[in-house]
């Protein structure tokens, strides 16, 4: 389980940074022309900068010493012109790379989103939504600096470094050696702290993710939090998490802060060495004043890119864990996907068959055992049984949200594993107890069932399930906004919209999982008429705890501990005096007792 419970930090497989960097660099491939242009512009800027110390040498040795003012002015004008051109080129390359970076981040976000949408239910079973959000938003953002700095700074800095080194060694070999004396030490230091730093940034990212997950879940469940007055407890947990996050950040940053001072120290020591040794060479007449001044100029041109590279390295170390986390998700193989030879399911009649189906969620716990079932097209099947018996699991297998471990699930004689998911799920409609409405209008939510449905069709569907009455009374009728998750509506109203949505989709196979559980008896009567319309001519699976709602089903299957233990009509099962009879009598008695108790 790579990343799981809410307050637990995720575990991520260790991966080779080089492979991740290569993979990231792959995203630059489609932008070769832009990258090439950026490099060209950078080349011009570097060229212009490299000329500066040389111009200084010329100014001193050729014009100042000879007191040639006209020549000096000409040189100065040339230098200003070159500088202006360099500034323009710099601005252009920043603009181009910012565009490229933005498009790459967009691509990664799209890839992540599309990929996560394809992942099976089992992926979401183990992962809090907040942790998924953290990856799509936070981790992708963290790559921004990496991309924009890599081309605009890293490559030019490396080129500058190589060019300056060459020039310095060409100008004076011994001075060059003196100025770079500290470099090997610096390199060793950087390498040694990288390992620890990377580890610390990883921990920080996990903490951020955990905080996000916690915040997301608690605000999603704010009604429960408030009704149980759990605010102090959740605040305490949140405080603990953000303090852990802060500590992780401080630990990571503290190490980062070592990078710059160590480069500055090496720079300072190098400059001192050049000044000391340069004066000595000057005294012996080995070098000119102009050369020494130019050399000092080149030293700062050498250390500036070293500083930038170490800064980039810093960014790389702190953000590479974001890339790891992104690829970690992109590498998850959607276990439930179209097989290479998958076929499209033609419009179905609606026969559903289970052949010796065994099913597990987690390794050794059989949830369904040897389920055999044959449902004729148009038949209404009710699934009843104790809580946790396996009713929902059965219908999940029909939609192939999960796959059977053994046996086969067939629709019109075709194994669901051999079909494309789109053609399979497109012909199955589902209404769940926990109806999910999206923010938007009532009309848009009903139309979710069939996106090309006309307004008239939407209204007709609502009428059929008796939702039209209450919708018409809403402030803006069908255009009323339902708010996030439909919080503007009552539970029963949301359910009725879900029925209208399912009716509009007009699926051949329909699944109602506890769909009437939250509806009061009066509305239920209305809804039952709607449901009767909904079920007509379709193969339907109705899961219900309230047995009064399924008495008219063609067949009732009683599920107990993952097996079908009884099957028949309401009357037949009552006669059998088995589990169904017991369940029915228990509910019947309960309903009889309730008013009596209330009266007493
Ligand atoms: N995503 C899951 N991961 C692991 N186990 C699960 C998962 N979903 C359900 N289970 C387990 O599988 C068993 C069957 O669950 P299922 O939801 O099919 O029962 P059900 O009959 O529909 O129950 P209910 O009437 O309460 O909705 C239960 O023991 C449950 O704990």
UniProtKB/TrEMBL annotation:
High-level lineage: Bacteria, Bacillati, Bacillota, Hydrogenispora
InterPro entries xref list: AAA+_ATPase, ABC1_TM_dom, ABC1_TM_sf, ABC_transporter-like_ATP-bd, P-loop_NTPase, Type_1_exporter
Record-linked SMART domains: AAA
Main location: membrane
Keywords noted in UniProt: ATP-binding, Membrane, Nucleotide-binding, Transmembrane, Transmembrane helix, Transport
Segment forming the signal sequence: none
Membrane topology: Multi-pass membrane protein
Residues covered by the ABC transmembrane type-1 domain: 36-318
Pfam families reported in the protein's UniProt record: ABC_membrane, ABC_tran
Domain ABC transporter: residue ranges: 352-586
Location in or out of the cell: Cell membrane
Transmembrane segments: 35-56, 68-89, 177-197, 285-303
Name of the molecule in the record: ATP-binding cassette subfamily B protein
Gene Ontology annotations for the cellular component aspect, listed alphabetically: plasma membrane
Gene3D superfamilies (alphabetical): ABC transporter type 1, transmembrane domain (1.20.1560.10), P-loop containing nucleotide triphosphate hydrolases (3.40.50.300)
Record GO terms (molecular function): ABC-type oligopeptide transporter activity; ATP binding; ATP hydrolysis activity
PROSITE patterns: ABC_TM1F, ABC_TRANSPORTER_2
